[in-house]
Amino acid sequence: MDTSNRRCRCRCKSFSSSSAPSEYRDWAALPHDVLFDVFLRLESCEIMWGAEGVCKAWRRVVVEEPKLWRRIHITSVPEWSSVDIAVRDAVDRSAGLCEAFSGPWDDDSLLYLAERSPSLKEMHLSHDEYASYEVLIEAIKKLPLLEDLEISPPYQQICASERFFESVCKARPLLKNIKIMFTMPSGYNMGDAVLEEYIDGDIYRTPLMLELRSLELSNYLFFAEALTAILDNCPLLESLKISGLLVDGMDAQLREKCARIKNLSLPNDSDEEDEETHDSDEEDEEPEDEDEVSEEGEDPSDAGF
Asked: Is pTM beyond 0.85 here?
């Protein structure tokens, strides 16, 4: 037996000593299917920088089973490694079977993922201030099966949130779920964003999104015209959540379009709903006051005055 397997038994001996002090288990000799089932329950980071370093037998399962890497979830990268190395290793091990990726991104690793993951359906990318907006759009175009996109782009780098959202929709118009959380840099506020939008001067429209069911936009600056385009061009939309700033107001026609969305949350919509509820309550109370007045007016006549 090689030294790595002996080392594996030594490491695991202490865990079994409480039940059988004179015995140990040869964890390196566990059946392949058992190890595979256990590793499926671990995150990618726990496998790459934990389980695969235990012994050769464990590493063999990790490296030789592409199905372990159908869902790649990288929460953090050790200081001695890098995002690019971690993503490349995980993508290589998936052998083109990766269906879901979640983790940090930079230009090189994102392109590597897109070019070698034709089966990718779900992609959740955390914020990287050095990542390129153009590379992200290019990567999205390379993923024909992508349905679920969640991303945190730096706001100031792309300047206009409407422009970015439109570019994402054009790059992959068959997305079913989109979540974009714009990261506001320190000292940057919605007033600055409004000014940039006016300076830009262009009008951005949501293209036809026939499969979109859910849309969530955080720190999003938009106009009523942009909201109208979303509602008109996303016929299957069921959930719409937007936080940020609606620069201009909504007219009755736009409110009517919003009413068809099952799960709707817009900036300041709760305050407007409260005002409408308050107004309707006052209207409901008016007939009661009139009835009371009429009843009071009848009393004197009944009394003979």
From this structure: no
Cα distances (Å, whole numbers) of residue 298 to 287, 291, 292, 295, 303: 17, 11, 10, 5, 9
pLDDT of residue 292: 47
Q: What is the CA radius of gyration of the chain?
A: 29
**Model confidence pLDDT, tens digit, residues 81-98:** 777 888 898 999 899 999
**CA-CA distance, 201 to 197, in Å (whole number)?**
6
Could you count the other beta carbons within 10 Å of the beta carbon of residue 81?
13
99, 121 Cβ separation under 8 angstroms: yes
Q: Report in angstroms the alpha-carbon separations of 228 from 238, 250, 263.
A: 15, 9, 16
For residue 282, is pLDDT > 70? no
CA atoms within 13 A on the CB side of 47: 27
CB atoms within 10 A of CB 34: 10
What is the DSSP secondary-structure string of 109-160?
Answer: HHHHHHHT-TT--EEEE---TT--HHHHHHHHHT-TT--EEEE--BHHHH--
Rounded distance, CA 179 to CA 122, Å? 12
Which tokens in the block code for residue 298?
A: 């009848």
Query: Can you tell me the distance from the alpha carbon of 125 to that of 183, in angstroms, rounded to the nearest whole number?
Result: 13
Q: Which of 201, 193, 205 is nearest to 245 (CA)?
A: 193
> By C-alpha distance, which of 241, 233, 117, 227 is closest to 173?
233
221 CB contacts (<8 Å, ≥6 apart)? 160, 161, 162, 190, 193, 194, 197, 244, 245, 247
